[in-house]
């Protein structure tokens, strides 16, 4: 599993970018908001990734923040929402805006995205209103302090291990409070697992 890429931005298109990591160009699908944040060709970038594996392809999706990546995973967990629709939603709504729309059951805001009709927008709101609580850590920029990135990545790791969003968030927050702002991802996940097991 590739969790993130750090390298030079080799090129970008309407819905993708190529990141050159030590001479290997990784093609990553991305939202318009992520592509806007990457900067100019040739600049060094860090991009959070999610690997999508299907019968006939392996694709990397790229995100400016771990928060955006976590929302992509949540969105694609909804029936009828594939990678393309999830990226369309994230192209018009930042994670914080999406979180607010889901919390307020504002399906009209989500329906503004290309390929999202009123019924699908309503389904997204209905299915995510309980799950979205686990993403309460907020957005974490690619240039944010390591503790912020480690916190969001730790929540993501806990979610991947099968914890509910609220449990994962609570355990990581408790671990972060105990370890302080300089905590590494590894230390956070270890302590969060111990706290969740109590």
UniProtKB/TrEMBL annotation:
Matching HAMAP family: DNA_HJ_migration_RuvA (MF_00031)
Q: What is this protein called?
A: Holliday junction branch migration complex subunit RuvA
Q: Which source organism does the UniProt entry give?
A: Sphingomonas trueperi
What does the entry's domain section say? Has three domains with a flexible linker between the domains II and III and assumes an 'L' shape. Domain III is highly mobile and contacts RuvB.
Pfam name, any one: HHH_5
- Domain III: annotated span: 153-198
Q: Which family, according to the similarity comment?
A: Belongs to the RuvA family.
* One BP annotation, GO: DNA recombination
| Gene3D superfamilies with a match to the protein in the record | 5' to 3' exonuclease, C-terminal subdomain, DNA helicase RuvA subunit, C-terminal domain, Nucleic acid-binding proteins
Q: Where in the cell is it found?
A: Cytoplasm
Keyword hit for Iron-sulfur: no
Q: Name one GO cellular component term.
A: Holliday junction helicase complex
Q: Where is this region: Domain I?
A: 1-64
Please explain the role this protein plays, according to its UniProt record: The RuvA-RuvB-RuvC complex processes Holliday junction (HJ) DNA during genetic recombination and DNA repair, while the RuvA-RuvB complex plays an important role in the rescue of blocked DNA replication forks via replication fork reversal (RFR). RuvA specifically binds to HJ cruciform DNA, conferring on it an open structure. The RuvB hexamer acts as an ATP-dependent pump, pulling dsDNA into and through the RuvAB complex. HJ branch migration allows RuvC to scan DNA until it finds its consensus sequence, where it cleaves and resolves the cruciform DNA.
Name all Helix-hairpin-helix DNA-binding motif class domain ranges. Answer: 73-92, 108-127
Annotated Gene Ontology MF terms? Answer: ATP binding; four-way junction DNA binding; four-way junction helicase activity; hydrolase activity
Superkingdom, taxonomy of origin: Bacteria
Q: How does it assemble?
A: Homotetramer. Forms an RuvA(8)-RuvB(12)-Holliday junction (HJ) complex. HJ DNA is sandwiched between 2 RuvA tetramers; dsDNA enters through RuvA and exits via RuvB. An RuvB hexamer assembles on each DNA strand where it exits the tetramer. Each RuvB hexamer is contacted by two RuvA subunits (via domain III) on 2 adjacent RuvB subunits; this complex drives branch migration. In the full resolvosome a probable DNA-RuvA(4)-RuvB(12)-RuvC(2) complex forms which resolves the HJ.
Which keywords fit this entry according to its UniProt record? ATP-binding, Cytoplasm, DNA damage, DNA recombination, DNA repair, DNA-binding, Helicase, Hydrolase, Nucleotide-binding
Report the main location listed first in the record. Answer: cytoplasm
